[in-house]
Design brief:
130 residues, Nuclear Transport Factor 2, Chain: A, 4-stranded antiparallel β-sheet, NTF2-like_dom_sf, YchJ-like, SEC_C_motif, UPF0225 protein D5S18_01645
């Protein structure tokens, strides 16, 4: 369970309850592709497979989301965004997600594509390496 008074894992500096918490609970939708990217990072950090599946485009959604029990997400770095605003239908977010495993620290660098499905932002796919 996430402590709602602690800083949100996405790194925006807000409390979880005021940042990604309402998105993960379904109380509201992400207003931008970057907000969805941040909330999906948070979902990975708190092991919320249901949210990840719910925010994955139906054409690319996996049957299951598996988590590596050895992996601990440390922080998220947004490199750049293209489009993805409230009035756009598509968007791109390039990010680096830093993590630690038993063998040390590493980084996942990805450029993710987002679109809208039923009016809500969803993750389409990603290209590793930025």
């Amino acid at each position: 369970m996430v402590n709602v008074d602690r800083p949100c894992p996405c790194g925006r500096g807000e409390k979880f309850a005021d940042c990604c918490g309402p998105l993960l609970s379904g109380a509201r939708s992400a207003p931008t592709a970057e907000a969805l990217m941040r909330s999906r990072y948070t979902a990975f950090a708190v092991l919320d497979a249901e949210y990840l599946r719910r925010t994955w485009h139906s054409s690319t959604r996996p049957a299951e989301v598996d988590f590596d029990p050895e992996l601990r997400w440390l922080f998220l770095e947004i490199v750049r965004t293209e489009r993805g605003g409230p009035f756009d239908d598509t968007g791109i977010v390039e990010f680096r997600a830093h993590y630690r495993t038993a063998s040390g620290r590493d980084t996942l660098h990805e450029t993710s594509s987002f679109g809208k499905e039923s009016g809500a932002w969803v993750y389409l796919d990603g290209k590793l390496g930025g």
